[in-house]
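Subject: Interface between my chains keeps coming out wrong

I've been trying for a while to get a sensible model of this assembly. When I model each chain on its own everything looks fine, but I need the whole thing in one frame so I can look at the contacts. Pasting all components below, labels as-is. Any help appreciated, I'm running out of ideas.
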Amino acid sequence: MADKVYVAGVDVGSTTAKAVILDSDRNIVGKSLQDVSPRVAEDAETAFVKACQDAGIDREQVALITGTGYGRLKVRFGSLIVTEISCHAKGSQFIYPNTRLTLDIGGQDTKAIRLGPNGEIIDFSMNDKCSAGTGRFLDVCADALGHSVADLGPMSERSKRPTKITSTCTVFAETEVSNQLARGRKPEDIVNGLHHSIAERSISLMRRVGIEDEITFTGGVSRNTGLVRALEEKLGRKINVSPLSQWFGAIGGAIFALEELEKGNDPSFTQLEVSS
Ligand SMILES: Nc1ncnc2c1ncn2[C@@H]1O[C@H](COP(=O)(O)OP(=O)(O)OP(=O)(O)O)[C@@H](O)[C@H]1O
Ligand SMILES: [Mg+2]
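Reply #2:
Try treating it as a single job with all components included. I did that and got this:
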């Protein structure tokens, strides 16, 4: 029997590196998550090796690897390079086929991507260089409250009255939280207020590309159930969120790799840049 064929997607973001291994039947058989350090190329490699271990395969069994994300050029062992906009869109439609709008909030970027029925990117918009309202902002706020970001969702669910937050600027995040605490606001109300404020900001970004019926939320910040709830309240509808949402960029990358193999292309020795 011929050996099974595997592909990989490695999404090296500003904050974390994510890798996913897919078999040729499009099953996700392994994944990993790794903090990004100043040695980005090593982190990309570690993420890939860990995902292979998680899948119980040798790296030689992976026929094609796609690099994506902010640090995609550091995936030197990969053969395909695809932008994260394309990969998050692809991953969203792979898991939720009717997705027409993807909201990706990572450590440093927020992106709204509008898609056609066949995955074509119709329009996208992203925050400028400023990291206001992104994962970094929430990381600093959580620190200032003496909690981890994983606590923020459950905390905000205890809130009855969100505190009004005027700025989602990362530089002033600590001051904003300290000022609200000094005014006697409860930590859960502050966190709820932070979520409402980020939800507003994200919805304005989504409006720039056009709000569509089926919305999929990707990136690490989508793990925050409090923010999901704030978005759903303001949009007046449910949005798609998966336990794998932080890996959607890597999943999309792996699907691009599989499609190249299925087309009979094997860009093993040259890096092929796909921009669609
Ligand atoms: N369990 C969790 N609950 C809530 N938030 C989380 C959790 N885990 C991670 N995050 C948030 O996710 C962020 C990282 O997201 P992600 O891995 O998508 O970033 P990235 O891809 O490296 O960044 P970018 O796409 O902006 O370059 C962190 O900054 C953190 O705020
Ligand atoms: Mg990212």
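Reply #3:
Confirming on my end. The beta strands are 6-12, 16-23, 28-35, 62-68, 80-82, 101-105, 110-115, 121-126, 215-218, 272-274.
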